[in-house]
Amino acid sequence: MVIKPTNASSTKLLTMETLGISTAHIYPTFVFGTITYLTIVFCNLLVLITIAVSKKLHKPMFILLFNLPISDMVGATAFFPHLMFSIVTQSRLISHPACITQAFLIHVYGSGNLLILSAMAYDRYIAICYPLRYNTIMNPNNLIKIIVLIWFINLSLIFTLIMLHVRFKICRTNIVDLYCNNPSLMKLTCEDNRVNNFYGIATIVLIQGVPLSIIIYTYAQILRTCVMTNQPDARRKAIQTCGTHLVVFLILQINTMFLLISHRFETVAPNIRRTFGVSILIFPPFLDPIIYGLKTTELKQNIILFLKRNLSS
Q: Of residues 38 and 196, which shows the higher confidence score?
């Protein structure tokens, strides 16, 4: 039996899960959240600007890396400002259009990061396994094609995913998570959403499966090449660069996988699901620029030079 939509679908005001913050902790939590968001924005902007102004970093690896802070800031900005507003006002209401927008941006961030990291893995694979052909394969034209393809696949897939929700009238008003996303939007409707479900599964397979396959293959080949090489310095540099990339990828992949699994099984405690959901929007945007900034020697040196130059002036 199909339940008719309530008046909530006309008012389009939704209620997110309560934050459970006591009155005494409202302002400390607000200050902590604001500092966290500003730190994320500052660190990612620092990486962006350093790559943009440093000609030494105008290489395929860093041009691909340039897209990661953009994606990270999209995710953080989709989450933090509304969260800070909710903390101060103690209101968890959000309009349906705003919820749709937040879900779109958060999914663009998540899928974008996985696709960008896959492209970076391919770049490292060519650089280490086929060094003599690297400049030919990763020439400017091919690099632009890779970047355009990443964002086209990302935006088109997520846009279609969200548009499949817009056609439904909502009959519920409770968002089961601390922010809007595809699974929480699906639970608002009482209509037949099998098409959405099938498309969502196909998107998960594509966005999760393809990057994971690329990472496994490229790193297996990189490891094989590193073992076979007789140059300790080259091997150490390759392992250091790839190790940094792998840590960033695993942080995002593990969090995303646990979140998707938790939404598929009703037996998973809501608090566990929400913890993984929030961690995806905090840890990768916070850690990505720090990990790359500290572990990638060339980037770290240019960041230090950029800061010294601007502080002294």
A: 38
Q: What is the CATH number of the domain that holds 236?
A: 1.20.1070.10
Based on the structure, what is the number of domains in the chain? 1
Q: What single-letter amino acid sits at 279?
A: S
Whether the CB-CB separation of 266 and 50 falls below 8 Å is answered with no
123 or 241: whose pLDDT is higher? 123
Average the pLDDT over 37-58 and give the result. Answer: 95
Q: What are the backbone angles phi and psi of residue 94, rounded to the nearest 5°?
A: -145, 140
Beta pairing partners, 93: 15
Question: Is 3 part of a structural domain of the chain?
Answer: no
Choose among 132, 139, 117, 153: nearest CA to 250: 117
221 with 129: CB under 8 angstroms?
Answer: yes
Q: How confident is the model at residue 232 (pLDDT cuts 50, 70, 90)?
A: low
Residue position matching structure tokens 């939404």 = 263
Region of residue 14 (phi > 0: left; psi between -120 and 50: alpha; otherwise: beta): beta
Domain that holds residue 49: 8-312
Residue partners of 71: CB distance under 8 A and separation at least 6:
108, 109, 112, 113, 116
Confidence band for 6, pLDDT divided at 50, 70 and 90: very low
- 270 φ/ψ angles, rounded to the nearest 5 degrees: -55, -35
